[in-house]
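hiii so my PI (J.) wants the whole complex modelled not just the main chain, which honestly fair. so below is everything: two entries, each one labled with what it is. i double checked the lines twice but i was tired so who knows lol
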Amino acid sequence: MDWVFLSELAINGALTGLLYSLFAIGLVLIYKASSVPNLAQGGLTMVGAYVVLALSHDAGLPLWLAIPLAAVIMFGLGFGIERVALRRLAGRPVVMILMLTLGLDIFLRGITLAIWGGTSRSVDLGVSYEPLFLGDIFVSRIHLVGAGVALALFVAFMLFFRTRTGIKLRAIADDYMASWSVGISVERGVGLSWALASVVAVAAGVIWGEIQGVDQALSLLLLKGLTVAVLGGLDSILGAVIAGIILGVVENVGADFLDPLVGGGSRELIVAAVLILTVMIRPHGLFGRHDIERV
Amino acid sequence: MQEKVEAEHILSMNSVEVLYDNVMLAIKGVSVKVPKGEMIALLGSNGAGKSTTLKAISGLLKAERGRISRGEVTFQGTDITEVLAQNRVGMGICHVIEGRRVFEHLTPDENLTAAAPRGMSRSALNAENEKIYDYFPRLAERRNSQAGYLSGGEQQMLAIGRALVTQPKLLMLDEPSLGLAPFLVEEIFGILQKINQEEGVSVLLVEQNALAALEIVSQGYLIENGRVVMHGTAEALKSNSDIQEFYLGGGEETDFHNVKHYSRRKRWLS
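here's the output for the full assembly
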C-alpha cells in the first residue's frame, strides 16, 4: 500500500468535495428558507459563469470587476425569479414548486444555449497550473482556491443565519402561515434566499468554469451537489461542507480501487450509491433537522 | 355622534361575507365590534365560522384562497379590507393562529426575534423579550431549547409571546385552550387578562370553551352557520338558558325518566 499516494487521493478528493459543497451551499440556502429543493441550481450556476464571461471576455471588464458585478446581476435575477414565478405558488404543495424549479432549470439551459452556443469556453482566472507540492503530495492550486471560497462562504452564511434576517428566513422554512401571522414578509424572504443562492451560483460557476470550462455540462453539477446536500441534510450548511468532503474522498479513493476492476466510470456509480443509500438509511442526512413529533 | 361611536371601537366588521375559492360562503354577513381596551369572545361550535372571522380581520384569508366578498373591516377608523396581512401586523393587528404553530426548529428566543417588527432596536427587542418572559416564567427556563419540544401549554405561551413582540393593539387568539389541561387554560387566560389590563391591548378571543372564555371577557358573540345569532355581555350570556344548555354543558337537571333518545340540537332562527 502506497500511503503517500493514498493520502494524495484523499486530500485532492477532499478539495474536490469542498467544491461540491460550494455548489451545495446554494441548494441549502434555498431549502433553509423555504423548504424547497431547488433543482434549478445547476442552471443558475451555469448562467452565473456565462454572465461573468459576458462581462469579462465580451465586454472587456477586468475579472475583479466582472465577478462582483455578475454577483449583483444574479442577486437581482434571484429576486426576479421569486417575483415572477414562485410568488403565485407560495403555500402550494412542495411538489408543484419542485416541478417549477425543474422547468426553470431546463429554461436556463435552453436560453444559455441560444445566447452563447454550445462551445466550451474558459474563464481563465489567472490561477497558475504549476503543481503545488505539500511535502510529497501534489495538489491543484485552483482546487485549493475553490475550497477556500467554499469555506469562506460557509462561515459567512453560518453567521448570517444567526442575524435577525437569517432567523426570519428559518422561521419561514418552518411555517409559512405562522410567518405571515407575525408580519414576516414570506415573499421577500424567499426572494432573498434565491438571490443569495444565485450569488453562490456565481462563485461556484466561476471556479467550476475554470476547472472544466463553461458549457452546458456545468449544469450537471446539480447531481453531485444534490447528493452532497442530501447527505449533509438539505438544511444544514455545516452538513453540506462535511458531506462534500466525505463524498469527495469516497469518490476519489473508491474510484481508484474500483476503476481497474470495472474498467472505468465508477465515480458516477459511487455518487449514485451515496445518494440512494442516504435516502434509504438516513433520510434527514447527517445534520438535517427532523420533523418534530411529540407524544 | 357617529364619529364618537367609531372612535370607541378599535375594530369593527360590518356585514362581512367570506368566499373560499370563489364558491364556498364561509361567513354570511358577520358584524363584530371590539371596543378599545376590552376583551371580546367569539363563541360557537366547530365550523361555525369563528376562525374565518379572525382570518378576515388579520388578512390571512388570502393564504387559504379566501377573500372578503362583501362588507368591510375597519381598524382604528381606517378601512383595511384590502390591506395585506403583513401590513396589518404593522398597524397593530396580530393573530395567534389555531394550533399554536410555533417555529418548531427555532428556540423560544429565536421565535420572539423572528416576530420583531422592522426597525426594532436590539435593546428594545431584549426589553420586550424580558417582559414576555416575566408574563410567562415557564418559558424563560426553556428559552434556549428547541420550541418543537416544549409542552403544549408552553408552546401556546410562546405563540402568545411571539404575537406580543409585534406590538399589537388588537390581539386575536384562535382557540388558545385547545388540547390543554384545565389548570393550564386557567393560567393562560389569567395571563391574557393581565396583558389586557397592563398593556391596554384589546383582545378578540375565539373559543369553544365558553365557560372559561366568559369568565374573562366583557362581551360575547355567538356564531352559528356563518352568522351572529346572539350578542350580549358576558353576564347576560352566562345566564341565557340556551347558552347554558348548548355551550356551558349545564341546563336543567336531568330527569332520566324523560331522557330523549336523540341529541337535541338548537336551531337558531335568523
